Amino acid sequence: MKKSSISKALFTGWFALMALTASISAQAQMRVEISGVGSNQIPIAVAAFANEEISPQLVSSIIRDDLNRSGYFRLIDVGSAISETATVDFENWKGKGATALVVGSVQKRGEGRFDVRYKLFDVLKGDMLSGFAMDTPSPKIRLTAHKIADDIYEKLTGIPGVFSTRIAYVTKAGSEYRLEISDADGEGVQVALTSKEPIISPIWSPDGMKVAYVSMELKKPIVYIQNLMTGQRTTVANFKGNNSSPSWSPDGSKLLVTLSKGAIAQVYSINADGSDAQRLSNSGGIDTEGRYSPDGRYIYFVSDRSGGAQIYRMNADGSDVKRITFKGSYNISPRISPDGNTMVYISRRDGGDQVYAMDLLNNGQELRLSDTNRDESPSFAPNGRYVLYATQTGRRGTLGIASTDAKVKQKLTIQAGEIREPTWGPFMK
To answer: Minimal CB count within 10 Å: which of 98, 125, 162, 244?
Structure first.
């Protein structure tokens, strides 16, 4: 393959984004479609919360939607509201097939504030597993419901829930590109950035307060950091040639970037303020898409040094380079799970680009996660159990979510347009 061809292939996000043509509304909400279920679904009853109709949104409905979307719960019909102060007839709920029960209430505390109370019961043991009360301002009702769903998910599966986390993605409205932030379910969309030129490769900082991305507004790729709280923007990499593929170090002090500096693209580290760019990779091929392992010891990256795009690993100082992928002639976009045990990536096989997961601990065993064929830009959920990615349905760009056991699939679409370049945000402290 010629260098010009592989260069274009390795900068997949840039060229895919430039192809977007449909317009969308800045406040358009996503439609979520679910297919497949997790193994050993947990039968759970989520009652309507007492007095929840006084709040702007129904807390119990949001909780049900979250648990249903996860694929790991089977919802039992309740039919009526139950307060957290009510006496629970556990035998009755056993007879209905429930192993867990959620009850609660919403009370008004003052102008624009609500007291949301909830309890989770183990029906089989007749015990309360969890419960809390949250003083919630009106605009945060949805977030409180997501936090309750997170607590339920964790208490019943042993894995932290991600319903209260956020995702970011790029859309295009007319001639305007937008970096948008939403809840993990696609609700609560906010525009973080607008531009007349493509916005590429957004990625959250470890603290969830900033997003690094590439912009083409000066007619060349430049890496920026956007503070989501203040709106302040910092230029990180604007060297001669292309500046692309930002990713954060685990502590948020540095980024990996791909710089050509007028020559062939290589992986560099650079401080978050744009100082002290240090070259890490060193080959005669194109090296790009560098990603730290969660412990910061390793960097995974894409290189065509073997003749085609493959994924490699090196120490954080650039030493001891090892090839990781061997199946398929084209493997890009490595992303490492929060526990460091799994790598997801895009692999081209049988004429399609699909999301694959590789077990990094057990001889590189692979599992295909997606059931689509034009996938790109995978991103792990912060609990490591789901992967968000861009794909196409027909000729429209959509987002997909797949569980890492490949049993649960979701499709997120916007009715009037296309979405690209997704990234899943971290847990917020």
So the answer is: 125
